[in-house]
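Z., the sequence and structure:
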Amino acid sequence: MPKEKEVKPTVDFTFSENQDGVVSFSSATTGKIDSYFWTFGTQHSSNEANPKYELYTKNGTYNVQLLVKGLGGDAIVSKGVQIKNIKGRLVFWISHQSFSIDVSVSNQRVYFSFAK
């Protein structure tokens, strides 16, 4: 009996942004997938299937790409992702871990909130 040919994957993704500018990406890819490679329109990338990205530092539209590889071949999709909820965040990248500092000003006082 001949072996069934692997079908090339179809690739797509969805995303949602929370009120702090953290974006959750979800692969909507079909087919047998061996690997994922995301680029976020910045210098950062991820190999997770459904990553969260919290290193956007300003509002705007970013070109996000998802490349998937499977036995049936490779497939890629690019989308313009509009970020709207960045509010005075400083982001530090230290030893492959991200830390964010949210800054708010009230009555001429500056408040800092640290998160990992």
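Residues 13-86 form a domain with the Immunoglobulin-like fold (CATH 2.60.40.10). DSSP finds no helices and ten strands in the chain.

Let me know what you think.
H.
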